[in-house]
Amino acid sequence: MTTTMARLLLGVGWVCNVGLALAQPKSDQPSALPLNDLSAFQKPGKNWQIVGDVSANLNQNNVLTSTKGTGVLANLPVKDGNIDLVSNFQHGDVDLDLDFMIAKGSNSGIYLQGRYEIQLLDSWGVKTPRAGDNGGIYERWDDSKPDGQKGYEGHPPRQNASRAPGLWQHLKISFQAPRFDASGKKIENARMLLVELNGVAIHENVELSGPTRGALGNNEVAMGPLRIQGDHGPVALRNIIIKNYDKPRPELMNLKYTVYKGRFDKEPDFSKLPPEAEGSSVLLTANVTRIPNEFLIRYTGTLRVKEPGDYAFNLGAAGGGGMMKINNKVVITPGDRRQNGSVTLPAGDVPFELMYAKLEDWAKPSIGLAVTGPGIREYVISDPSNNNSGDPTDPILVDASSNTVLRSFMDMPGYKNAQGRTLRVVHAVSVGSPDQVHYTYDMDNGALIQVWRGKFLDATPMWHDRGDGSSRPMGMVQRLGMPLPGLTKLASAQAAWPTDTTGSGYRPRGYLLDENDRPTFRYQTYGATVTDAVRVLDNGQGVRRELTVQNPASNLYARLVEGTTIAPLENGMYVVDGKAYYVRIDDAGGATPTVRKVGERQELIVPVKGKLSYSILF
Predict the structure, then answer these.
(1) Residue 219: which residues within 8 A CB-CB, separation 6 or more?
(2) pTM of the shown model
(3) What are the C-alpha distances in Å from 381 to residues 1, 11, 13, 443, 573?
(4) Cα dihedral value 449, 454, 456, 462, nearest 10
(5) What is the average pLDDT across 370-393?
(6) 3-state DSSP call for residue 460?
(7) For the ranges 10-14, 158-162, 345-349, which has the lowest average pLDDT?
(8) Is 109 inside any structural domain?
(9) CA 475 to CA 453: how far, in whole Å?
(10) Does residue 505 share a domain with residue 559?
């Protein structure tokens, strides 16, 4: 199942054609692990500290430096006695969400239940990741096997979505613990339901037959501690958010159905309708009638609630609509095919009623009902085999096995246009590289607007059916700020940057491809001729941009990046957006860069006298 399909229902793997998606009940929010001290962990070693911040040097192996404070959990190795960190709490099914920073050349890992490792590693620039790379599910191990075969069942990430050392990375894990019967026998393996690294899905629904190498024990358990590897190298973590799913699911019982023929767009008076069919069912399903269209199925029964609290429901009614009542309250009202509702339920048996009206003949009849509640991960309570994925669109993916140029619209999430909608760059040129580092150039502004690592483009929105002209990056994306003119004249280094090219005489002149099919962009502005070449750095560690300006106007500036923060480092380096990426000034022609405040954000600008080159490292 791929991320281009409808949303994966965790723990079930069932997809409804209406795309079931629930908001979490208000009473069931995740909790943050307190990092004011180390009291959440068992006997922490001297290598583990609570600090205020950390940083790493791109040229120094296995070193993190820290500042005093709280909020960051850091493994800062000492001469002797570096040990792993084990939590006081135990978990079963869990969602884990955290930021981490790895030092250059360093190695660590997160063990779910102390037994199943997601690797943390400096994998910056790795082209083909393996199970031992950043985000990989580490191998199992058997010393009795021959050399070269001892490691087995490792799972590499789908693509390398890693950031550079010294940058904060984001990891999200949805884990399902192994299941055991009443006698303690394992009846279902553990699973990594979903793992995302820096916003990219790198694992989905991966079954784990047993503990990975280096586990706390080879026995499997229903509950186990969180463990962080501390004996291999420096690592830091922050914003550790945990959501446990340890409560029993509600059950549907005593289901009875009645089928009525006809078109229904509201609840009818059932006392006046003759049924077409009726009976009992152990499952909530549409497979109780052979009528293909224009019918209504009414279910009544009992919902057994074992855990009181707030519950959220999503009803998928293929080719029609539905209505649901629980405990004699309307939870989902009649409407279109995407119907959500929530209700507070007591423990015990409560009345349940659901109606499904099939109106359109293009869809196969199906009912999908998903539920989440206090300590209960979202699951499908209806018949999982009665799904209708409709006619799913085959994704149209553009590979960059060689240097590739694609023009399209490009949406910029997080940035708004004048109408308050997501900003769309309408003359975007995306350039893909076999080194798996790519970028998008805005031809309307002469600006580099985003870079990303991993797979190239999903062109499905542009080329499927009528299309909307847009494509989407498929890897770990780093946007470089609001798309604005790349060059402009300023009265001073503190003057406002214009929002468009009005008055500059800006004229795009297309691009020329070199012998390796890499474009160099050309344009005119303020009477000057500009060539703009962006090239992927060796080892895929970022991109280098070189601007050459013939006959530059006086007081001409280049706007390199924009972010929440831009902090200077050594040797012309800057770290941007709270340590999300680096900018390195390679050659400013003797000009001095300026970091300036613009509202709540900052910009890095440089006077341009002829040539300017800089690199984005991420």
Answers:
(1) none
(2) 0.90
(3) 20, 12, 13, 50, 54
(4) -80
(5) 84
(6) helix
(7) 10-14
(8) yes
(9) 5
(10) yes
What region, left, alpha or beta, does residue 579 occupy, with left being phi > 0 and alpha being psi -120 to 50 degrees?
A: left
What are the Cα distances from residue 427, in Å, to 157, 424, 440, 544? Answer: 33, 9, 10, 22
Which of residues 203, 230, 245 is at a domain's end?
245
- The backbone region for 389, taken as left when phi is positive above 0, alpha when psi lies in -120 to 50, beta otherwise, is alpha
For residue 27, the model assigns a pLDDT of 47
Q: Give the pair of three-digit tokens for residue 450.
A: 């985003």
> What is the Rg, in whole angstroms, of the alpha carbon atoms belonging to the chain?
28
Does 235 share its domain with 97? yes
Domain boundary (245, 271, 304) is at: 245
Strand locations in 76-220, DSSP E? 85-91, 93-102, 107-112, 116-121, 140-141, 151-152, 169-176, 179-180, 186-188, 190-197, 200-208
CATH number where 352 lies: 2.60.120.260
Q: What's the token pair of residue 88?
A: 């006081």
DSSP β-ladder status, 611-617 and 581-587: antiparallel
Number of domains in the chain: 3
Cβ proximity of 386 and 286 under 8 Å: yes
Ranges of H-type helices in 473-539: none
* Pairing of β 507-513 and β 519-525: antiparallel
Tokens of 260: 């009525």
Q: Give residue 463's domain range.
A: 397-617
Using DSSP, state whether 555 is helix, strand or coil: coil
